[in-house]
């Protein structure tokens, strides 16, 4: 069984897919996906997102503001209140994305720091998005004691030195379907070095469909393709990769009662 550690179930284009949310989850379960973490990108849309997934026991939620969606100052009280809900197992996604304009860097940094503060207060791990902002990401994590709440660098596409610094802070690294792309050689080399007990897998659906589904709307069922690819890359069986990444997920997000034994 596997877990999709990061998907945006409220952002799927159900008309284009010709499927309901129920059917999307069903298809994923048919592909051995047994748990889903539905990730929030704005506080405004969070209540509606929570409402959509609330009836599914195998779907957990995060609460936070994506760095590219952080238009003004973070409302830290609102984040704390919304995140203080038993369905919410993580804070984020937050982080830094410097790929686009420079103007938002300061707003992103303050928001990121605020998320870390709330994560430490509520003792829920962070989901960190980081792109083209390696040193600032690590600096802010250290300055605000992100190692106390822990978390994951999701959809990781940066280099090994950055992965190593995050691992040294006790963080996990989550890999999306980007690793299956032809031009992802550098990332594939990084994935080979990530210890098995710190690795998570995700789709980040509806974005970034893995090979062989490129160009289609991504969905949680495709996390199986990511799992097969990474198992091959790391020279382990699919079963071993599935079990280890699932157990990593449950232990990081304190869903330990769902962990599987190590029987093969
Ligand atoms: Zn992200
Ligand atoms: Zn995301």
Question: What descriptors fit this protein?
Answer:
8 strands; TatD DNase family protein; binds zinc ion; 11 helices; Metal_Hydrolase; 8-stranded parallel sheet; 264 residues; TIM Barrel; alpha/beta
Query: How large is the count of helical segments?
Result: 11
CATH superfamily: Metal-dependent hydrolases
Provide the gyration radius in Å.
17 Å
Q: Give the C-level CATH assignment.
A: Alpha Beta
Straight-line distance between termini: 12 Å
Helix percent band: 40-55%
The number of E-state strands comes to 8
- On the 0 to 100 scale, the average pLDDT is 95
Instruction: Estimate the global geometry from the Cα principal axes.
Output: globular
Strand order across the largest sheet = 1-2-3-4-5-6-7-8
How large is the share of residues in beta strands?
15-25%
CATH topology: TIM Barrel
Structural class: alpha/beta
Instruction: Tell me the major beta sheet.
Output: 8 strands, parallel
Would you identify the regions where 5 or more consecutive residues have pLDDT less than 50? none
Assign the CATH architecture: Alpha-Beta Barrel
The succession of helices and strands, N to C, reads EHHEHEHEHEHHEHEHEHH
What count of domains describes the coordinates? 1
Compounds present?
Answer: zinc ion
